Amino acid sequence: MIHRTCAVLLAAGLALVTTEGLAQDSTTEGIAKYREMLEDDNPADLWMLRGAELWKTKRGPKDASLERCDLGLGPGVVKGVYAQLPRYFADSGKVQDLESRLVTCAVTLQGFSLEEVTKRPFGNGSEEKSDMEALVAWIVSESRGMKLKVPTAHPKEKEAYEIGRRIFSYRAGPHDFACATCHSLEGRRIRLQELPNLTTPEGARKAFVSWPAYRVSQGELRTMQHRLYDCFRQQRFPEPRYASDVITALTMYLAVSANGGELQAPTIKR
Mean pLDDT score of the chain, rounded to an integer? Predict the structure, then answer.
């Protein structure tokens, strides 16, 4: 009798697991189809158009455009640069991602102060839009379809990667969280959202190549800086300064882990 009862309970448990698994698969497929339907009319196009215009518009105390900005492949070159960022820049003496490099160019070429450039890095979902998010959207779109090939030859690039790897696994805060808490195992999700395992090349590629993205729930295009900033906020960590070395290092770790992935951004997300 006991054996029969155990068998019944085991069968019921297996059925429940199977049902939950099917439900999760169905939800994931539904979200994927939803995104696919929206891609043809992705509002990110509006940010890209504005970013292309901002790139060539003369602004700031020096009345200069960003057309001489060196993003890693030479002054003014935009095509393919995002596929090789972050990277070391000799003129700044540090590893920079796209956003921190744009800050450097705005300061040195256009004469803006650091405070002016970083005053509004993120839009607020209504009338206050971010020039930085628009520039990033356009520049990233110029590398769409290319394979990630983030360099690691320079000692500073190796150092940034290692620091980023440690930050990813560093547990702290009131909940004793780390990036790895949510993103180091397979099959995890929060609400309806699948959480990729960023410690594997497949998971890192799936996540990294899809940012920046237009967030339907926020009515804004969000960059990688914002994505990581928001993760820190949700973990109840001190919120990092925009274009900080901490965010750059974490981006370096994720980008190198995603090397070989094909860039798809800007995409659209919930």
Answer: 86
